[in-house]
C-alpha cells in the first residue's frame, strides 16, 4: 500500500515533514494548505507524538470533524479521540470549563449568544432610564464586542480618554456604565458571551502562570488554519500557548483575509516572522482545485490589490470553460436564471445537487434565489440568517434546559418564566430584577427567598413563582440520572411548551411543534454520537455547549443532497464544482458600506477572490439591473469587479439583441415584463434608440464588461433528437446506450437510457448531448 505522504507534492511535503520549531505556510487558494495541516498532524502522530499533545484550530467545527476523520483514515487508529480540534470558541470554552473557576465562573457556565447579549443590553438601557433611540442596543452590543476583542476591559475603557471622548461626542456618555453593568450581570448570571470565551482565556493564561504552564505542556504542537483571519485576542492566546515549545504551525493566505470587520488582523500573518525566532516559511504554488480559467481570472483580480504578499498560483488542471456572465432585469429573474441553469447543468451532466453553490454578499439576497429553487423543486440548504437554534420555540426549550444546568442564567429565566403563560407579569419580573441587582443575587435566588424579602408581590403571584422554581428543581433532580434526550423530552412536555403549540393549531403552531420534535431528534442523535466517544457522556451540559457554539456550517449533515446557499464569508475554505456568485452590482458587491477607503475596497476584492476560488469547474457571475433593497426597487449598476476581469476569461450569456433598457414599469408588480412594450419605452436619458438597441455610447460602456457583445452567442438549447424506445444513442460523456423509456412532452421530454457501462440515466432531451446511432 502506498504511504500517505505520496498524496502530496514536493512543496507540500516540506512543511509536513518540518521537524520542530515555528513554521508558516503562505499560499493562494486551493493550493493544499488545509491538506498540509491535516497531513502534518497525521505525520506527527506517526512519528510518535501523542495525539493528546496536539491542538488544531479550524474555521468551523465541521472542518475539524472532517479533518479528524481524514487523519483517522491516514494513520488508521482511534488515537484521534484525544486530539483537541475545533474553532477557537469551542476549544477555549472547553478549557474554561476545566479552569474557569479560578476566575470565579462555575464549570457549568452558560454561553450567551448574540441575541442573549442584545436582550440583556436592551434591558440594562431600559433600567438605566436611557433614551433607546440614542442608545441603540445592537450598536452598543457591537461596540462592547469590539472592545472585548481588542482586550479593552471596562477599567481600560475608563482610563482611555480617546474612547471616552469618542462616545461622548457620539452623545453616548453612559456607554462605559452600560459596559460595566453588562459585564457584572453576565458574571452574576454565570454566563460568558462569545467574546468572553477568548477574553477570559487570555485573562486566565496571563493571571495564572501554573495554568499557562499546564496547557503549554499539554499542547506541544499547535496548528492554526486560516491564520489570516485571527483577531488580536486569538493571536495572543496562540502566542502564549506556543511560547514554551514554539511548535507552532500556521497556514493562511493574506489574499483571503475577509474578517477585519470582526477585528481580524491581517498583520498577524505579516508579523509572524517577527514574533517567533527562526521561522520557516513555506510557499505552495500549485492549485489543485480549479480550472486554468478560474485560477487565472482569480489571479488577475487579486493583482489589483496593492497590499499583499507576492504569490504565484498556477494549475495543471484543464483549461475549463470560461466564467459565465449573466444579466437580468430584476432580482426575481436573476433567481430564475440561477435555478434553471442549475437544473440544466444537473440534467446534462447528471450531477447531484450538492455540487452546486450559490454565494452572495448579504443574507437578504437569498430570498429570490430560494423562491426560484422552490418553484423548480430543487432542494437547497441555506446557511446564515436565523439559525435553527435561534428560532423562538427552539430557544424557549433550550432556555428551560439552560436553567436546569445554571439557574442563575438571567436571560434564559426571563424568556420562560412566563412562557407558557402562568400569570407572572412584566411588573413582577421588573421588581425581581431590581431586587436581584440590589442584593447582588440572581433572580432565581430571589424567588427562592421570597418569604424573607419584603417585595411588593402578592401571595397569588408568589405561589406561581414558587411553582416555577419547583418545576425547574424537579428537572434538576431528574437530570442527575438521565441523558440529554430523556430529560429534554420530559421538559418539553412538563413545561407545557408542546401543549401550548398544539393548542394553537394554526399552521405556524404546527410548524413550531415540528421544530421542537426536530430538536428532540437532534438531541437523540447527539446522545448516540457522544456515547461512542471516550471522554464524553452525552449529558445536557455537553449538548448545550455544542448548540451554543454550533456555527451555521456545523449543522450540515453531509448525506443531504442539496444545493448550498450561503454568504461568501461562510464559504471560506470550501469548494464546489459549480459556483454561482450573484448580485455582482455596485453598492452590493462591493458593499456600499465598504468603499470609502482603499483598504475597505481591497477587502471587498479579497472577498471576490475568495468567492471565485471556491469553484472547481465552472463559475457564474450574475447581476441585475433592478433590485429590491430596503423594500424599494432601485436601479443597479454592474459591479466594478466585473470590469476588472479580463475579457478573455468571460463568456457573456446575455446577447446584445436581448439588451433592454431598464423597464420603466416594475416586472415584479405587474408580473412578467411585456417585452414589446419595453422596447417602445424611451430610456431615461431621452434619446430613443432603435428598437431595443443600445446607443453607441452605451454599447461602449457595455463592451467594457461584456466582451462578446455583438457576436452571436452559442450554448442555447439543442435540437431534440428523435427517439423511441430501443433507439441506440451515443452520449458525449456516458458513451453508447439504448433508450429504455420515454416520458414527458415538449420541453420536458425525458429519456431513460441504459448505457453500456451499466448505469441507467434519465436525461432531459432538450439539453442532452445525444447522437442517434
Ligand atoms: P483554501 O485557500 O481555499 O482554504 P487550501 O489551500 O486550504 O484552499 P485545500 O482545500 O487543502 O486548499 O486543497 C484544495 C483541493 O485540492 C482539495 O480538494 C484537496 O484535496 C486538493 N489537493 C491538494 N493537494 C493535492 C495533491 N497534492 N494532490 C491531489 N489533490 C490535492
Ligand atoms: Mg483551506
TrEMBL record:
One of its GO terms (biological process) is recombinational repair. Residues 6-291 form the UvrD-like helicase ATP-binding domain. The keyword ATP-binding applies. GO terms for molecular function: 3'-5' DNA helicase activity; ATP binding; ATP hydrolysis activity; DNA binding. It catalyses: ATP + H2O = ADP + phosphate + H(+); Couples ATP hydrolysis with the unwinding of duplex DNA by translocating in the 3'-5' direction. Signal peptide: none annotated. InterPro entries: DExx_box_DNA_helicase_dom_sf, DNA_helicase_UvrD-like_C, DNA_helicase_UvrD/REP, P-loop_NTPase, UvrD-like_ATP-bd. Residues 675-698 are annotated as: Disordered. The keyword Hydrolase applies. Transmembrane segments: none annotated. CDD domains: DEXQc_UvrD, SF1_C_UvrD. Its EC number is 5.6.2.4. Keywords: ATP-binding, DNA-binding, Helicase, Hydrolase, Isomerase, Nucleotide-binding. Residues 292-573 form the UvrD-like helicase C-terminal domain. GO terms for cellular component: cytosol; DNA helicase complex. ATP binds at residues 27-34. Belongs to the helicase family. UvrD subfamily. This is DNA 3'-5' helicase.
Amino acid at each position: 500500500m502506498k504511504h500517505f505522504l505520496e498524496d502530496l507534492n514536493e512543496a507540500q511535503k516540506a512543511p509536513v515533514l518540518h521537524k520542530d520549531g515555528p513554521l508558516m505556510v503562505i499560499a493562494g487558494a486551493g493550493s493544499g494548505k488545509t491538506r498540509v495541516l491535516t497531513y502534518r498532524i497525521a505525520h506527527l502522530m506517526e512519528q510518535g507524538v501523542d495525539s493528546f499533545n496536539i491542538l488544531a484550530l479550524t474555521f468551523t467545527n465541521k472542518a475539524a470533524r472532517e479533518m479528524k476523520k481524514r487523519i483517522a483514515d491516514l494513520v488508521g487508529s482511534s488515537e484521534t479521540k484525544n486530539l483537541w480540534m475545533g474553532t477557537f470558541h469551542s476549544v477555549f470554552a472547553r478549557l474554561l470549563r476545566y479552569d474557569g473557576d479560578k476566575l470565579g465562573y462555575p464549570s457549568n457556565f452558560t454561553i450567551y449568544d448574540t441575541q442573549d447579549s442584545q436582550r440583556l443590553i436592551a434591558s440594562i438601557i431600559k433600567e438605566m432610564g436611557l433614551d433607546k433611540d440614542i442608545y441603540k442596543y445592537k450598536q452598543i452590543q457591537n461596540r462592547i464586542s469590539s472592545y472585548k476583542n481588542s482586550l479593552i476591559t471596562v477599567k481600560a475603557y475608563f482610563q482611555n480618554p480617546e474612547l471616552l471622548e469618542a462616545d461622548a461626542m457620539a452623545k453616548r456618555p453612559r456607554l462605559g456604565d452600560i459596559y460595566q453593568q453588562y459585564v457584572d450581570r453576565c458574571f452574576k448570571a454565570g454566563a460568558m458571551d462569545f467574546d468572553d470565551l477568548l477574553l477570559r482565556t487570555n485573562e486566565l493564561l496571563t493571571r495564572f502562570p501554573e495554568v499557562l504552564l499546564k496547557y503549554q505542556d499539554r499542547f506541544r504542537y499547535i496548528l492554526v488554519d486560516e491564520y489570516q483571519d485571527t483577531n488580536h485576542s486569538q493571536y495572543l492566546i496562540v502566542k502564549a500557548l506556543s511560547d514554551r515549545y514554539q511548535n507552532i504551525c500556521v497556514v493562511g493566505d493574506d489574499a483571503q483575509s475577509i474578517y477585519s470587520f470582526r477585528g481580524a488582523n491581517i498583520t498577524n500573518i505579516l508579523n509572524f516572522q517577527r514574533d517567533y525566532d527562526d521561522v520557516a516559511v513555506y510557499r505552495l504554488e500549485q492549485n489543485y482545485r480549479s480550472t486554468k480559467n478560474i485560477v487565472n481570472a482569480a489571479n488577475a483580480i487579486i493583482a489589483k490589490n496593492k497590499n499583499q504578499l507576492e504569490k504565484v498560483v498556477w494549475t495543471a488542471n484543464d483549461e475549463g470553460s470560461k466564467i459565465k456572465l449573466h444579466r437580468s432585469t430584476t432580482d426575481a429573474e436573476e433567481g430564475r436564471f440561477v435555478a434553471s441553469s442549475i437544473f440544466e447543468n444537473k440534467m446534462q451532466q447528471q450531477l447531484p445537487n450538492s455540487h452546486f453553490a450559490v454565494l452572495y454578499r448579504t443574507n437578504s439576497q437569498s430570498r429570490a434565489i430560494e423562491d426560484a429553487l422552490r418553484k423548480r423543486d430543487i432542494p437547497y440548504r441555506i446557511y446564515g440568517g436565523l439559525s435553527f437554534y435561534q428560532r423562538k420555540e427552539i430557544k424557549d426549550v433550550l432556555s428551560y434546559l439552560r436553567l436546569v444546568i445554571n439557574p442563575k442564567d438571567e436571560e434564559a429565566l426571563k424568556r420562560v418564566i412566563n412562557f407558557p403563560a402562568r400569570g407572572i407579569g412584566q411588573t413582577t419580573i421588573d421588581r425581581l430584577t431590581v431586587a436581584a441587582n440590589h442584593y447582588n443575587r440572581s433572580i432565581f435566588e430571589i424567588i427562592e427567598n421570597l418569604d424573607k424579602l419584603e417585595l411588593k408581590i402578592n401571595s397569588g403571584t408568589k405561589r406561581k413563582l414558587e411553582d416555577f422554581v419547583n418545576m425547574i428543581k424537579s428537572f434538576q433532580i431528574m437530570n442527575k440520572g438521565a441523558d440529554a434526550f430523556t430529560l429534554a423530552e420530559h421538559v418539553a412536555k412538563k413545561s407545557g411548551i408542546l401543549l401550548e403549540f398544539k393548542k394553537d393549531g394554526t399552521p405556524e403552531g404546527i410548524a413550531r411543534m415540528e421544530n421542537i420534535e426536530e430538536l428532540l431528534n437532534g438531541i437523540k442523535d447527539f446522545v448516540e454520537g457522544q456515547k461512542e466517544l471516550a471522554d464524553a457522556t452525552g449529558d445536557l451540559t455537553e449538548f448545550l455547549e455544542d448548540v451554543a457554539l454550533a456555527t451555521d456550517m456545523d449543522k450540515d449533515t453531509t448525506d443531504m443532497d442539496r444545493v448550498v446557499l450561503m454568504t461568501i464569508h461562510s464559504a471560506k475554505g470550501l469548494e464546489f464544482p459549480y459556483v454561482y456568485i450573484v448580485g455582482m452590482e455596485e453598492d452590493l458587491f462591493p458593499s456600499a458600506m465598504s468603499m470609502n477607503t482603499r483598504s475597505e475596497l481591497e477587502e471587498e476584492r479579497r472577498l471576490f477572490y475568495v468567492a471565485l476560488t471556491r469553484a472547481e469547474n465552472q463559475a457564474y457571475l450574475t447581476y441585475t439591473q433592478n433590485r429590491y433593497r430596503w423594500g424599494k426597487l432601485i436601479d443597479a449598476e454592474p459591479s466594478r469587479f466585473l470590469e476588472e476581469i479580463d475579457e478573455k476569461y468571460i463568456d457573456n450569456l446575455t446577447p446584445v439583441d436581448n439588451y433592454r433598457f431598464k423597464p420603466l414599469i416594475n416586472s415584479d408588480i405587474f408580473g412578467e415584463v411585456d417585452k414589446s412594450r419595453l422596447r417602445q419605452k424611451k430610456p431615461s436619458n431621452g434619446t430613443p434608440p432603435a428598437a431595443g438597441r443600445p446607443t453607441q455610447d452605451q454599447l461602449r460602456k457595455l463592451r467594457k464588461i461584456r466582451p462578446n457583445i455583438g457576436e452571436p452567442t452559442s450554448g442555447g438549447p439543442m435540437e431534440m433528437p428523435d427517439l423511441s424506445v430501443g433507439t441506440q444513442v451515443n452520449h458525449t460523456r456516458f458513451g453508447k446506450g439504448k433508450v429504455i423509456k420515454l416520458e414527458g412532452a415538449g420541453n420536458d421530454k425525458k429519456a431513460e437510457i441504459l448505457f453500456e457501462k451499466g448505469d441507467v440515466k434519465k436525461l432531459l432531451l432538450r439539453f442532452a448531448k445525444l447522437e442517434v446511432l
